[in-house]
Design brief:
This protein is of the alpha+beta class. The protein contains four helices and seven strands.
Length: 143
C-alpha cells in the first residue's frame, strides 16, 4: 500500500478523536502529524504526516485502515493486515483478481491506493515474503 505518507491527516484525526478522549493526547498526535521534515535533496520542508518508520506510524495506520478493514469484511475477504501491509487469501485466481479490485476500491474510498510495485497475485506453492517471513505452502520461514 505505502499508505503512511498519503493518509489524509484531517480524516485520520477525526478517527483518532473518536478513540482518544484526552485533548492533550490528541494535540500531541496532531503535532506529530504536522511536524515539518527537511528534505535533504531540495532543502524544502514538508509535513511528515504519518511517516513510515515513526513510532506512531503502525498505530495511526491501524486506526485509519480499520475503516478499510470494515469494507473488506463486508465483502467477505479473507484479509490479514498489519499496519499498511496486507495479504488477501483466495481459493482461485479469479477470486484473487476480484479481491484485488475490491481492495483497490476500498482503499480508494479512504484516499489510498495499492502499491503497484508490491501488489501481486501469487500461489502459496510459489511462496511470498511478508513481514520478515517467507510463507510457502503450509510452512513459514523467518527471513
Amino acid at each position: 500500500m505505502g499508505s503512511f505518507d498519503s493518509i489524509p491527516t484531517d480524516r485520520l484525526m477525526g478517527l483518532v478523536g473518536r478513540r482518544v478522549a484526552d485533548p492533550l493526547l490528541r494535540r500531541y498526535v496532531q503535532g506529530w502529524l504536522d511536524a515539518q521534515i527537511l528534505n535533504g535533496i531540495d532543502g524544502v520542508p514538508s509535513k511528515a504526516g504519518a511517516s513510515q518508520g515513526s513510532v506512531l506510524s503502525p498505530l495511526l495506520a491501524n486506526i485509519y485502515l480499520h475503516e478499510v478493514d470494515r469494507l473488506a469484511v463486508g465483502q467477505q475477504l479473507a484479509w490479514v493486515r498489519y499496519a499498511d501491509d496486507l495479504v488477501v487469501c483466495c481459493q482461485r485466481k479469479v477470486d484473487a483478481e476480484a479481491a484485488m479490485m475490491v481492495t483497490g476500491q476500498a482503499l480508494g474510498e479512504w484516499g489510498l491506493h495499492l502499491n503497484e510495485h508490491k501488489t501481486r497475485i501469487v500461489h502459496f506453492d510459489q511462496g511470498f515474503a511478508w513481514l520478515g517471513y517467507f510463507l510457502l505452502r503450509e510452512e513459514c520461514f523467518q527471513l
